Fold this sequence. Notes:
Elements: H1 2-30, H2 40-82, H3 88-121, H4 129-160, H5 164-187, E1 193-195, H6 200-211, E2 215-222, E3 233-236, E4 241-247, H7 248-253, H8 256-271, H9 274-293, H10 298-303, H11 310-351, H12 353-366, H13 375-381, H14 387-393, E5 410-414, E6 417-421
Parallel strand pairs: 2-4
Antiparallel strand pairs: 1-2, 3-4, 5-6
Helix pairs in contact: 1-2, 2-3, 3-4, 3-11, 4-5, 5-9, 6-8, 8-11, 8-12, 9-11, 11-12
Amino acid sequence: MLQTIIIFYSLYTFMKVYISIMQIGFINTEKRKTPVLMSASKYLIAGNYAVANGKLGLVNTLVDYLMFIWWVIAGFAWLNSLILVEGTIAQAVVFLFGFIIVNYIVGLPFELYQKFKIDSAFGFNKMTAKMYIIDTIKSTLLFVILGGAIFALLAWIIESFESWWLWGFVMMFSIAILANVLAPTFMALFNKFSPLEEGELKTQIDEMMVKVGLKNNGIFVMDASKRDSRLNAFFGGLGKSKRVVLFDTLIAKLNTKELLAVLGHELGHFTHGDIWKNIGLIGLLLFISFYLFGHLPETLFTDMGIVQSAGAEIAMLMLLLPLVSFVFTPFMSAVSRHNEYAADEFGSELGGKENLISALMKLITENKAFPKSHPLVIFFYYTHPPVLERLKELGFDASNTIIEKEAKEEELVKDGIFAYMDRDEK
């Protein structure tokens, strides 16, 4: 059984590596062609950013594979030998925290390089080392409290019920729904939320929400710019009462009409019930995963040199969940892309087609999102349609559009990564 799992995980890793290599090669070629949606220099910057992320992700995938092999051959047995606490639930919690700590230490260099090298070089990261440490302490404390409770409860279910996978699924699915509702509350531990000032924008957001049958539960501005320069916005809540959260970066870069068109797109998701559809798909994935991992044979754990315990079963679920998710990713991505097209249509009707087109073009430029990708990447990973296709559906064919006006930019090579200083175009 262990050999079979290693073979499947090896195939999964090979597919990820192959897709990454194809994507890196594709963008390296495309970034030198005639630019679309952006000026030539910004087009090259977006391409270089995508390639830098792709290369880091490729190395990360290979390290993850080596860690997987180590865990199933020797790591679980090594970790199990270090646990001296008594009690099956306590042993499970300690085992899982040990498992996560090791993985965190191995993954930390990738996170730091992403944030303080790549994102900093391309003008995204605004965090200081002090802010990063404070955020890490907060998130660690939150995880120890909530994660410890979840691990203990799931371990108790495994020890108490023969069909533990079914009750474990019910528990984790319920937690996933609750997390969706409480996400803004957790974010408040890291970010400051300020009520949107009275004015035209607030009034029009209120009117837009009333038009689609939703109740405004507050409109807030989040100080995202102190950590990152990317643009975003989201709605909180699962019922008719919604909390609107706008990144301050979004307000700074989009005009009122463009911002309303973006929010109209998000309101389209609620109107079409996309949130519940996504929750349903997540529930299906969790159900299948818990069923599969709830029927792992005892011989698998024997082959790894450990007994079949609650902690080991949960750790195997965490270790193999990406493999199961990868199989379902194309289907879930296809459903999501379909929903995005429908939300675009809704947003264009609510906020104006030309405003949504303008907003999409600004978003892709400000977020330095390269507008093209290899077909395999789109098939597997794109939860949103390629922006060129979205614009085409909205009636704007940007495939041959060349932005001739160049912003005044200073470009340099820093630590082997293309860095730049971006000046606002006026």
